[in-house]
Design brief:
mainly alpha, Rossmann fold, about 50% helix
Length: about 190
């Protein structure tokens, strides 16, 4: 079985592209969900994240507040210091976050790497819609997170396949179909 890494920057459309591959017959492991499961109260990853990032990342019920953890890991608008590598070192031995395959040094765990891209303004609009926030707030958050990630240009250089998710869903689906076809084993002659 081929192991394919699907990565891309924030709000590039990785989840949508992943679901398109599923419709074609691929199996999808959504590492975001796995990571959330690993950060449940009492789990080893939870304990280490709280030890490294402090009680300030917790909700009143003891669960990890993902917004506060993101602020601690990616820094705040006025503080460019990031601790993403530190968070990756805790989480990535257990799970590979799709957005951070290259940042975590895990690309060699996959047979092929697919990078999903889109125009920067689309990221902002998508992020704003997904989180129900203003485009101004989304721009600040997307900019902050992208600053802690490898730029798309470098990701593209490392990729075996690139899917440009800037156009219509139909255009993206056609690209996914081409990649899926290229990855399928060819019958022996």
């Amino acid at each position: 079985m081929l192991k394919i890494g699907l990565t891309g920057g924030i709000a590039s459309g990785k989840s949508a592209v992943g679901e398109m591959f599923v419709k074609l017959g691929a199996h999808l492991i959504q590492s975001d969900l796995v990571a959330r499961d690993l950060m449940q109260i009492g789990d080893e990853v939870y304990s280490e994240v709280v030890r490294q990032f402090g009680q300030g990342i917790l909700n009143s019920d003891g669960t990890i507040n993902r917004t506060r953890l993101a602020e601690a890991a990616f820094g705040t608008a006025g503080n460019a210091t990031t601790r993403v590598k530190e968070l990756n070192a805790i989480v990535h031995p257990a799970v590979i976050e799709a957005a951070l395959i290259l940042e975590s040094g895990a690309a060699d765990r996959f047979d092929h790497l697919i990078v999903v891209t889109c125009h920067p303004e689309q990221r902002i609009i998508r992020y704003a819609r997904r989180h129900g926030i203003s485009e101004e707030a989304a721009r600040a958050e997307v900019t902050r997170r992208m600053a802690a990630q490898i730029p798309d240009e470098q990701k593209i250089q490392a990729a075996d396949f690139v899917i440009d998710n800037s156009g219509s869903l139909e255009a993206t689906e056609r690209q996914v179909q081409r990649v899926f076809t290229a990855l399928r084993p060819q019958p022996s002659a």
